[in-house]
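Ticket #4471: structure output looks truncated?

Reporter: J.K.
Steps to reproduce: submitted the chain below (236 residues) through the standard prediction queue, then opened the result file.
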Amino acid sequence: MKKKSIVLIILIIILVIVGLTYFIQKDIKEKGKEYTIQEVNDYNYFISKAKNEQKFGIINKDGKQIVPEMYDSIRIANPEKPVFVCAQGDNTIVKNDSNEEIYTDYKNIDTLRLKNVSTDLVYEKSVLKYKNGDKYGLIDINGKKLTDAIYEEIDTLQYKEGELLVKKDGKYGVINQKGNISDMKNIFLLFQIYRGTLSASNSFWNNLQENIAMHLNCLSIYHYIFHLIANFDPSN
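Returned output as attached by the reporter:
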């Protein structure tokens, strides 16, 4: 019975994807929300490690130490850019290639780790998240604010660079690396999918049907379905 339910879920997902694919590019162009995934051609900066302790810094491509090896961890979102997230315990600051703190208007800035994306890099190259209180927002790699800190969660989508899964008021939605929400208004997915509900075909179908009816943007549904597939656990 469980196998039949799994097969039914997969068939439904496939049918929805096929039905939506035709409209994806049209939808992007009509709403003016196209974006380009930045290519990295030059690796200008690298993480260095202290010899006798677990502390890290930054060197440039000539081997010059530009950020001292004094941090618990360092993350480089884009190795072409002098933007380094330096972590000390639970706190982070951002340094540049002059070892100066930058983006000081924002607190606890961090990178966004990619999931199952074919790339040599680990993080989203164009955006960073920041935290204000218990909410998160986005800035671009140059420090420009893209969104206010209004989200309970910001995470990357499985298999998709440039698209981010966000949670607001307990509801999930998709925004892109420019901070544009998937719909013309602040419309978020009107339900939450938990792994436990995915094993029940009726619950899954009802939720998916509601999403299609209420969520106007085909691209968001398309990528959100892939996110569900990637996190589907048939054992639950």
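Triage note (M.O.): checked the attachment and the full token line is present. DSSP finds four helices and twelve strands in the chain.
Status: closed, working as intended.
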